[in-house]
Amino acid sequence: MKKALVVLSMMFMTMSYAQEIKQVPQISVAGEGKVKVVPDQATISATVETKGNVAKDVKKQNDQQMEAVLKVIKKMNLSPADYRTQRVSLNPVYDYEKKKTSYNATQTVEILLRDLSQYDELMEGLVNQGINRIDNVIFQSSKLAQYQSEARKLAMKDAKLKAEDYVSVLGQKVGKAMTISDNSQIYQPQPVYARMKTMAMDESATTTRETLAEGEITITANVSVSFILE
C-alpha cells in the first residue's frame, strides 16, 4: 500500500511539473554574411629543382641556385621573418629501362610579400636566379580578423531579416535570440597555379611587365539562430 501511494505521488508530481512547462514559440533560421576585399599581400611558394647523375654535384648546384635566390629576396629588403626554407630533399631516381640511378634535389622557399607593388620585380628576380617551379601563390588580406568580424555581423543581420520575413504574415514579432550556432568554415585562401607556372617557364622574358591581377577574395560567415516569437 505504501509503495502504491509513493508511485501515485510521483505520478502526480510529474504531471504537475509537465503542466508548468510551457511551449515557447520560436523560429530557427540560417544567416550568411559575405565581405569582398582586394588582397594586400601574397604568400609565394617557389622551388629550385636540379637533376643529375652524381648526388654531390646535384646538391651543390641546387645550393648555389638557392643562394642566388635568397640574395634576390634580401635585395628587396624583405623582413627575415617573412621568408623561410620550407622543404629540402635529395632523392635517387632509378630508371628501370636504362638500369641507371639519377638524383633529384629540391629546395622550397616560402615568401610572405606584404607589398604587392613588388610582386612583378620579385617574381622575375626569382625566375632569373634559379627558381624553376612556382608551386603556388596565395593572395590574402592583412586585416583578415577585421573582415571576419564584419562578415559575422552581416550573417546575424541576415538571419534576423529572414526571421522577420517569415513571421510578418502571422502578426507576430521576432524577439530575443535563444541559441546561436556558428557554422562558418575556416577561411582558406585559394592558391593561383597555372598563370604563375607559365611565367616561370618563360625564360626568354627580359623586359619588365605587369602580370598581377589579384582580383577580390570573399570572406564568408554562416550562422544558425533560434529566435523567440512575441
Can you walk through the features of this model?
It is a single chain. This protein is of the alpha+beta class and 230 residues long. It has two domains: 23-39 and 142-187 and 216-230, 2-Layer Sandwich (Translation Initiation Factor IF3); 41-140, Protein of unknown function (DUF541), domain 2 (Alpha-Beta Plaits, 2-Layer Sandwich). It has five helices and eight strands; from the N terminus they run αββαββαβαββαβ. A five-stranded antiparallel sheet has the order 3-4-2-5-7. A hairpin with a 4-residue loop joins strand 3 and strand 4. The longest helix is centred in the last third of the chain and has 24 residues, at 144-167. Residues 193-209 have low confidence and may be disordered.
Structural class, judged by helices and strands? Answer: alpha+beta
What is the CATH H-level superfamily of the largest domain? Answer: Protein of unknown function (DUF541), domain 2
Radius of gyration (Å) = 31 Å
Task: Give the CATH topology of the largest domain.
Answer: Alpha-Beta Plaits
Amount of helix: 25-40%
The backbone outline, from C-alpha atoms, is elongated
The CATH class of the largest domain is Alpha Beta
Question: What count of structural domains?
Answer: 2
- Quaternary class: single chain
Beta-strand segment tally: 8
Strand arrangement across the biggest beta sheet: 3-4-2-5-7
**Total DSSP helices:** 5
Order of helices and strands: HEEHEEHEHEEHE
Percent of sequence in beta strands? 35-45%
Summarize the structure.
With about 230 residues, the chain is an alpha+beta fold. The protein has helices at about 1-20, 55-75, 120-130, 145-165, 195-200, and strands spanning about 25-35, 40-50, 85-95, 100-115, 135-140, 175-180, 190, 215-230. Residues about 195-210 have low confidence and may be disordered.
